Amino acid sequence: MTKKNNGILTYAIIGFYLISLFTESFTGGGGIIGILTLIFGGLSILMLKITAFGAWSANILFFVVLIKKSQIETKLILSGISVILGFLALFVTDLPMHMGSTTSPVKIGIGFYFWIASLILLFNKSLIDYLKVRKK
Prior knowledge:
The structure is a single chain. With 136 residues, the protein is mainly alpha-helical. It contains five helices and five strands. The chain has helices spanning 3-21, 34-40, 50-67, 72-86, 110-135; strands spanning 24-27, 32-33, 94-97, 102-105, 107-108. The strands form two sheets. It has a three-stranded antiparallel sheet with strand order 2-1-5. β1 and β2 form a beta hairpin. α1 (3-21) runs antiparallel to α5 and α4 packs antiparallel against α5. The mean pLDDT is 89.
């Protein structure tokens, strides 16, 4: 992959992630846009919503891989784990609403697809970089 293509892929990853922040990540209960999911998702552990917390944790790994300078193998492993954790969002059936006093049933929204696409593209970028280094 050329440096130009690598840069375009990075912009696509960031673009999909940004789109996911401003679209509905979950529908139901009034809908939840991605930025709120990102900000408050970590609190799901307090409500014992393990799948929601696992999916939210994918964001931490995403940013570590995207920002931190680390070994290519590490980036590949972390981005792969990020994708796996991201798919846990498919198993989220209800989320805390109304200041955490009640829960509402939710379904995956369009923002999820942009978000998971950014995770998968980051994994693909890490895989391409890994294969490029191994080829040398």
